[in-house]
## 1
Amino acid sequence: MAALQVLSTRPLAGKTAIAVGLAQGFVRENLRVSLLRQGSGPAAEADAISFASYLFASTPGRPVSDASGQASGAGEIVIIESDVGAEPMAGVPAILAVRGEVSEADVNLGRALGDRLIGSIATDVPPGRVEAVARDLTNGSLRPLALIPEDRTLAAPSVGEIRETLAAEVLYEGENDLEVVEDVLIAPVFADPARPHFRRFASKAVLAPYNKTDLHLAAIETQAACLVITGGGEPSPYVADRARGEATTVLLTREETPETLASLSEVWLRSRFRGERKAEAAYQHLASRLDFAALARKLAG
């Protein structure tokens, strides 16, 4: 039926979120969708793995060097995400992902695309800048299709990204590497107030010193996605025993709690798009602003 390329001029602009959100919208219009990650390198590998985790679209599960030969069948849309700054595919309609503010590079790419530019989607837009960004997209002839505001779920890191950032030792693997962590909680001094406090947060990581076994158990009992034990000392073996069969990943880091918290401060700015919760958030943002059926007809020509 049609192909659509998703482009950007800067890293972490939201191309994967847009591709996955569009794919879900087209599927709900009874269209078949293929997701392709064109390019090479660690970012392409990570995005291709993310595509493979979603069952609503077909995908090879690895990056492709050249997607130009990928034909789509009747009632099918092929969505192709390309590397940052990659040469746009000839003759293929494009959506431009713009993160936050419109840059000169965005405007130049839009001009270079010409009639191939279906429109642009801005991501991570601060609440007070929505109208200004929409105006800048329009003035830059970037044909705004949707604006996705700042979103806690889309920005949140996964359990796996927290583990990698801290270079932490895994004491127990909860098999939830892709689970989104929206809140990082520092455990209080005593366990009794900790339990009701922890229960207030659905998707959380809890930081607690190695010698606070009661707080470790409280984090596991309240279904923390991730328990980060700080200070480098060996926790009670009962903690790993209690975690067995639960969905809490237990990590050990050599840093004390304040240093661990500081180490995590940047992960929210470079978190990649992974997991079902981010996929649903991306779709909901686009569904409130886009007519997927009309967009599919436009792609079909």
## 2
Amino acid sequence: MSADVVVIGSGLAGSAAARSIAKDGHRVTVLERFEKAHVRGSSHGAERVFRLTYDDPAYIQLGLEALSGWALLSKESGAPLLHQVGMLDYGDAGVLATLEQLCASNGVELQRISERDASQRWGGIKFDSDVLLQPVGGWIAADLALKAFADSAKSNGAVFHYDSPVLSIAKVRSGGWSVETQGGTLSADAVVVTTAGWTHELIGDVIDERFEVPPITVTTEVVAYFERRDASLWPSFCHHLEPEIYGLPSPDGLVKIAEHGSGAETHPDERSFDPNSATIQRLEDYARDWLPGITPTALRSATCLYAATPTDDIFIERSGSLILGVGLGGHGFKFGPAVGDRIASLVAEALAEASQ
């Protein structure tokens, strides 16, 4: 079997990349080691925050690229994927000042609202500072979005193989790649690796020593869901404490809250699916102290994996015709359409280079 491009991993980065690459007219095969829509990585779940408030202009620009991409994917799929209920940032004054300055210099609208006015407008949240409102922010219907990426990729000719773990990848003399799976060997002109915490085990020695791939740390994070006291509309929010607490509405009418990046380090094959009880207790305590609009006893909880680089930066780079898209776990879902396009751009470079 052969393909122009083999994409390894069908999570957010892999499915978004497959869509963009297939739209460019290339033959794409996606290999996923687990079942369709599995829960072992970082891409499952019903909702993710969408925001442009970053302390790095590169991510503000990436978010702006993604914003138009979400609109296109929603139109293509026929389902609303980005719900712009607003995004609130509050807490540490220094953080707010930085976010405000960078958003202003990058053309992103923010509204500064006094603590008093914010409390009147969003009575379900207790504030300790002025609030930065980002009108285009909100939440993404994550499971629907992941399906939309895959469906679009398939409609453009991409082929997905689930329960198909990759055993090895190797460079061949012709300049292409040999990808060995349990079901056979595929040849490809380019390979895209989007395997998060499994990446270093997979790429092994095939990477050029001059190509520095950052280490990826995997942590098990806990999220909890709480019942609203009334039917008022909730925004997404980030309370800039230590650790940061974020929250957002869920499609079933609950409010999801979590600590950002406080989980214990693990290996993706050894992670626990049982939420840490101490973390749930901290989230319930936070809800009791800061979120009067919800009942402070978690109705349910879940775990997910962060797979982050040391700087929390997303790593999208290529070494010849091997392209990596990793480090998204923790904050990358919001950038999905832009991540897919950037990976596809590197694939186009690699294929053009190989044809010379």
## 3
Amino acid sequence: MAVAEPWSPVDLPNVVMLDGPAQPYRGNVHTELKLVLTEEPYEITRREAVHVVPTGQLIVLHADEAHSGRPLATPSGRWRIICVPPAMVAEAAGGPGVRFDPPVVDDASAAKLFEAVFDLLEDDVPADERRQALVELVAALLPYADGARSGSAPVAIGRLREYLEQHRDRNVALDELAAVVGMSKYRMVRACTVQFGAAPHALHLQLRLDLARDLIRRGVPLADVAVATGFHDQPHLGRTFARAYGQTPAQYRAAWSGAGDTRKLAFGVSERP
């Protein structure tokens, strides 16, 4: 298979991405934080230590240290890569010099979050929303970094979900949310992930989609649903909704219209005369 070419998302020129067949390489050194997810097992060698990475585990390679890699399956399968610039890593961590050893995160939720952010970076949404999601991804990985300290989430994290529910009509920036709950961005993202199983951006997106489904069931025009749930426009709502539920808002509405009265009453929705 041909080697895929890297690219950068619109308005985020310092972020580099790649999606294509996994390749072997030797002695690679980079200045970014490199995040890799492969469809097939992969092997990473660093400082003479060999790490076999099973399918579904996220590879996290910090900056300025040589490493080599090779696929362990034939054909090699697909890999998806995001290279996060040092400034974004420092923003998420509160400073430079983040290191990951071993370079593997054995956490299915981390891989799932990576895939969601990768898809979002390719989407036609405002740059600040895509940038925020990437910073949150890095922050969610920091507990696996060298020297990370564990700790319980403070009670204030309950305010986070409440605030996100109250502001489902727009994107909420990390700085704004951190000020509301009185925590650093890193601690807030980690606490949110522990408490709710999702980083703030992913949690907020799910809350907005939940509201969208409710409004669709109630017959609200789709353009108005997009505005009420903070999406850039109706096509943006449609793409995000389809990615989450496997059907477009129009298809969901059509399926709901054909549902029985018992199911509708369970959701508190009745037919209008």
